[in-house]
């Protein structure tokens, strides 16, 4: 067995049914343990995003913390991942993406609470937190230390692949396809922009993310709404078909999916897989950004960061799915290959129903913005994970520079083995993180109920 096949087999296991069941199962467990408060307080959490109560210990505002987390979360999965899920799992996969996100709210809340509760201050006065610190300070002992080290290692490796090279390659490919710009030119531009932003640290990342993330989300939201309204007559039948195929025990085909045949189990598998991959609830990455926030209570930032799952999957992914479902593009085949149109090409085809030949431009620009923001967010995740392993400041500064330079390699080269390896590392991050969430669920519940009693009930 060669290395590539081995990595592919490991990757299939890491992102297989058992791991996905654990990810969603942890969300179900926490939702029940927290008495459904993350669901009940969702509107409160959305209001908290814009509150100015940030004159507390921390590096960036709660809003900037959320935008940094969203910058890494909202990526190619929102455009490519949704289309792939609907082809492999049928249009019903969209429902299961939404279901996984619903329980992911509690997971993301719990992760962020622990990140703030157990964070530390580093040698230059910055906040350092995330699952590795919750494992070290919350679980403690040799077991906690080993898990923390493994998580940090997995995160550092992931940052170069999933958080960097794959994103840079997506940008370069999209720009080349739409404008004919060489991948080397695009790679050079990405490298320079990354260096300018990343070498200045989290405050620079937070400031840029707080501008680029709302902007790119708003632009994509408007384009998607226009596309949906253009095909509004197809929405009722499309939505009915989506729910029918989501809960059909037998393999069925439908008008929305054309020739696509899928059962409930297939829809569930691909919907949950792409949903979790998109919003990262349970992987432990987003809490690293939550730990940097200026906040007076772990639960306050837990609620703020929880909304990232809502915006990522329940809004942006849902919009992409509805654009595809209402366009009539799902189930179409490529005349050149005879295969079903999938990924970015399917999303472009769907947007063409409303924007004609401007669709590739809209999707390509959205992809580029989503992917570049992911590079910014993941650098911070990798940096803080490396800081846990090697606290020397010169190593951290070197990481920022090397990470920026690697974007050029990603933009100009396709390294399948590197991508599979980093994809596996990304999935492996969730194992120690899920153990930590269950182990410290009592701490999460205590913080949740205390905040509910002392703050939320008094504000009502």
Notes on the protein architecture:
The protein is mainly α. The chain has a single domain, classed as Up-down Bundle (Amino acid/polyamine transporter I), CATH 1.20.1740.10. A two-stranded antiparallel sheet has the order 1-2. Strands 3-4 form a two-stranded antiparallel sheet. Helix 16 packs across helix 17. The mean pLDDT is 86.
In short:
The protein is mainly alpha-helical. It contains 21 helices and 4 strands.
List the helices and strands and how they pair.
Blueprint: H1 3-14, H2 17-33, H3 37-40, H4 42-48, H5 62-73, H6 80-88, H7 93-117, E1 120-121, E2 127-128, H8 131-139, H9 141-179, H10 183-198, H11 202-230, H12 235-246, E3 252-253, E4 261-262, H13 264-279, H14 286-290, H15 298-327, H16 343-355, H17 359-389, H18 393-412, H19 416-428, H20 430-439, H21 441-459
Antiparallel strand pairs: 1-2, 3-4
């Amino acid at each position: 067995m060669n290395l590539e096949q081995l990595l592919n087999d490991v990757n299939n296991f890491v992102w297989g049914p058992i791991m996905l069941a654990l990810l969603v199962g942890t969300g179900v467990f926490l939702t029940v343990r927290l008495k459904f408060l993350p669901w009940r307080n969702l509107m409160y959490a959305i209001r908290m995003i814009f509150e100015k109560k940030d004159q507390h210990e921390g590096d960036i505002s709660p809003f900037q913390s959320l935008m940094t987390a969203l910058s890494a979360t909202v990526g190619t999965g929102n455009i490519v991942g949704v289309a792939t899920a609907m082809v492999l799992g049928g249009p019903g996969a969209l429902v299961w993406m939404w279901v996984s996100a619903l329980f992911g709210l509690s997971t993301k809340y719990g992760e962020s609470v622990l990140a703030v509760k157990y964070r530390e201050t580093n040698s230059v006065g910055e906040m350092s937190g995330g699952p590795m610190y919750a494992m070290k300070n919350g679980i403690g002992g040799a077991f906690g230390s080993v898990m923390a080290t493994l998580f940090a290692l997995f995160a550092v490796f992931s940052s170069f692949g999933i958080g960097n090279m794959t994103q840079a390659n997506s940008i370069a490919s999209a720009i080349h396809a739409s404008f004919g710009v060489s991948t080397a030119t695009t790679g050079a531009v990405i490298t320079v922009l990354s260096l300018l932003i990343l070498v200045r640290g989290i405050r620079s990342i937070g400031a840029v993310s707080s501008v680029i993330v709302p902007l790119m989300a708003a632009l994509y939201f408007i384009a998607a709404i226009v596309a949906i309204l253009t095909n509004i007559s197809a929405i009722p039948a499309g939505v009915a078909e989506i729910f029918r195929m989501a809960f059909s025990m037998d393999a069925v085909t439908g008008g929305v999916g054309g020739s696509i045949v899928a059962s409930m189990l297939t829809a569930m598998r691909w919907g949950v897989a792409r949903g979790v991959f998109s919003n990262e609830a349970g992987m432990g990455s987003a809490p690293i950004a939550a730990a940097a926030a200026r906040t007076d209570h772990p639960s306050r930032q837990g609620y703020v960061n929880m909304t990232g799952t809502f915006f990522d999957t329940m809004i942006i992914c849902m919009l992409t799915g509805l654009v595809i479902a209402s366009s009539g593009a799902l189930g179409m085949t490529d005349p050149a290959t005879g295969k079903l149109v999938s990924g970015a090409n399917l999303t472009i085809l769907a947007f063409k129903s409303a924007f004609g030949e401007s669709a590739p431009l809209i999707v390509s620009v959205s992809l580029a913005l989503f992917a570049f923001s992911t590079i910014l967010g993941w650098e911070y995740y990798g940096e803080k994970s490396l800081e846990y392993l090697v606290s020397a400041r010169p190593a951290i500064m070197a990481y920022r520079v090397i990470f920026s330079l690697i974007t050029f390699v990603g933009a100009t080269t396709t390294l399948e083995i590197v991508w599979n390896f980093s994809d596996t590392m990304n999935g492996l991050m969730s194992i120690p993180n899920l153990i930590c969430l269950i182990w410290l669920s009592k701490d999460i519940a205590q913080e949740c109920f205390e905040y509910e009693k002392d703050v939320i009930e008094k504000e009502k």
